[in-house]
Fold this sequence. Notes:
This protein is an alpha/beta fold. It has eleven helices and seven strands.
Amino acid sequence: xxxxxxxxxxxxxxxxxxxxxxxxxxxxxxxxxxxxxxxxxxxxxxxxxxxxxxxxxxxxxxxxxxxxxxxxxxxxxxxxxxxxxxxxxxxxxxxxxxxxxxxxxxxxxxxxxxxxxxxxxxxxxxxxxxxxxxxxxxxxxxxxxxxxxxxxxxxxxxxxxxxxxxxxxxxxxxxxxxxxxxxxxxxxxxxxxxxxxxxxxxxxxxxxxxxxxxxxxxxxxxxxxxxxxxxxxxxxxxxxxxxxxxxxxxxxxxxxxxxxxxxxxxxxxxxxxxxxxxxxxxx
Length: 283
Ligand SMILES: C[S@@+](CC[C@H](N)C(=O)[O-])C[C@H]1O[C@@H](n2cnc3c(N)ncnc32)[C@H](O)[C@@H]1O
C-alpha cells in the first residue's frame, strides 16, 4: 500500500480532470502524428506511472484493438482507475522493476513520469519489456502559459491559508518528486544514450480557454471545474485552521467564474500546456 503521491503531491481530481481535458478527442490529431502508431493494429500497450488513468482511458478510445495495461505505485490512483475506467488492466507496481517479462509489449508510454525516476532504470526497464521494433513514447510537460480571470485571482482567505502553512525545504526530495529533470535537448539524448534508436521529438500544444467559441459549453465548464478541483485539493491536502475559509473562498470565486461563463461575459482566461513527445524504437 503506497499513497504517497495521491496524499502529498497531487490528488486524484487534480490529475484525472486536467488529463481528461489534455487527452480529449479534439486533440487526438496532434498526438496521433507524434505517436506514429497504427490506429487499427492489434498491439499491446503499457502505460507507466498512469496515475488515475486518464491517458489510458484516451488510448482505449483511440486504439480500439489494443490491449492496454497500466501501472502505478500509488494504491489510491489504481483503485480509482479500476472503479471508474473499464477495459484496461490497471495494476499497482514499480516502474523501476516492472512486473512483466522481457519483450512483452509493442508500445510503452508515460506522461509526466520521467522526471521522477532514475533515468537508467526508467529507460532500461522499458527497453527490456518492449519487443524488438517496439516503440517507447515519453510525454513530458514543458513550460506553458497561464493567464487567470480577474475573478480567479488569489483571495485574501487563500493567502492567509498558504501563509499559515510551514514551509518545508525538502518536500520534493521527501516524496521523490522531480529528482531527474531534463531539458528539451537532454531528453532525446538520454533516450539514445540508454539504447533507443530512431529517436524523434515533437510538441502537442493544448490551449484550454473556456471562452473560446471552439469549445462546447460542456468542455468549457469542465475546464473551470478542473481548476476548481485542483485548487480545492491543494488546500484539502494540508491541515490548517484557515482551510475552511479558503475552501469557501475558492468555491465562491469558481461559482462566479461559472456564472460569468453562463451569462456570456467573457474573461478570456487561458491555460496553454505544451507536451513534448519523445519517441524511440527498440532494435
Ligand atoms: C505527475 S504524476 C503523473 C500521473 C499520470 N501519468 C498523469 O499524467 O495523470 C507522476 C506519477 O508517477 C507515479 N510514479 C512515480 N514514481 C513511480 C515508480 N517508480 N513506479 C510507478 N509509478 C511511479 C506517481 O505515483 C504518479 O502517479
